[in-house]
Amino acid sequence: MSKTVAFGEIMLRLASPRHERLFQSPALEATFGGGEANVAVSLACLGREASYVTALPPGPLGDGAIGELRKYGVDVSRCKRLPGRMGVYFLENGSNQRASQVVYDREGSSLSLVGADSFDWDAIFQGAGWFHLTGITPAVSAGAAEASLAAVKAAKKAGVAVSIDLNYRKKLWKYGKTAPEVMRGLVSFADVLIANEEDIQLALGIELPEPSPQSTTQSSGLDVSKASLDKAYYRELVSLVKASFPNLEKVAVTLRESHSADRNGWSAVLSGSTGFYESRSYDITDIVDRVGGGDSFAAGLICVLSEDRQREAYALEFAAAASCLKHTIHGDFNLVSRTEVEALLSGDGSGRVKR
């Protein structure tokens, strides 16, 4: 079994308990999370071999993050201990019409201080079949962007498949370059792209197509007030992306219909080498924690495609189901097994006690 390598920043997550305001409670729940780390943990839980690459400070916080990854079976042998600090993010989980909020405190983190030569990518990719990166890491700093570019170049040289989840984060792009300036160069090395329509517009600078006159879709692709999606619109959108980046073998677009903070519709489409596919749609009510939902989708996609690149329709359904289940789990990590995802795919979504 070839391993998947993920590169990014794992942070200390401080969240208000239940659905309280951030400083309403005298206590915050401390866990760890971060885009690529979430993917690595999810892959390990699904039974795949996953390796995580990052930079962490020496001391108990860095030790705790590495211990948390190791606990779930993620290989952390390539994690570096470098000067700097631990990145932190604060989370207030929303409820009903009150949206969730994230506050970052990650300037000067160890990962933000890396550069193009900080990691031995040729050695890291030995025995690897897949490399995963998100648009969060190159947004952290110019040095992290250089390290990301070195990674995708080395992956292609080693014959390793590359997936990129655009994950546009407006709050992070602060070092003088725009997201399209950086991300277009990175995506030119990718085989698989994961995004939503906002990511495509803001991270790649691609103009969104006009919706059809009959569609309820607005210029953003989604009429949130009606919580309805026009999948024909997304077929045209992925065609535009593939025309801009002919290197892309597959483009997956996640579709979130946000009725409220507690209830979302969730589905996805994928344009690949074998056709265009739409997943089933999940009506997710009483959401426990939606953070990491996109990362669990990416992990589900990688889990199947790293075994068989042509199994696109099943990979899409598996990824959507895995992500659906993540919304029921507290924390960043999707702690579900492959058997549980397959059970949901087979129609077992009743939630009845298994004895």
From TrEMBL:
Classification via Pfam families: PfkB
Record carries keyword Nucleus: no
Superkingdom classification of source: Bacteria
UniProt-listed InterPro entries: Carb_kinase_PfkB-like, PfkB_dom, Ribokinase-like
Molecular-function annotations in GO: kinase activity
SUPFAM superfamilies tied to this protein: Ribokinase-like
Entry keywords, A to Z: Kinase, Transferase
Domain Carbohydrate kinase PfkB: start-end pairs: 1-330
CDD domains registered for this protein in UniProt: KdgK (cd01166)
Family under the similarity heading: Belongs to the carbohydrate kinase PfkB family.
Protein name, UniProt field: Sugar kinase
Organism: Teretinema zuelzerae
